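Tutorial handout. Part one gives the primary structure; part two gives the three-dimensional structure as tokens.
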Amino acid sequence: MLFCLCIIDRKTANWSAARRYTAKGVAGLDESRLQQARGAALEAINGSRPSSGTHFPSVEEAVRRAVRSAWKKNVEKRPVVLPVVLEL
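Part two.
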């Protein structure tokens, strides 16, 4: 399972630099592949312009698809991806 935590600042509507990505029990896990998953998640997040009206479930789905796609491309496995978007 890959866990992706993404935080948006309620006051500025900007994505926080404090993002957390962890993985447990994922085949082929190493730091370079985890970096690729982070990059895919960031691209998906940046593709959804942050605003006060951001629809978080659609951002979570975009992150899920991007990370699974990147992992499948590099490792030929499809882990469970759990993206969580929080507004603080």
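Part three, for discussion. The chain has a mean pLDDT of 77. Residues 21 and 35 are 9 Å apart (CA to CA).
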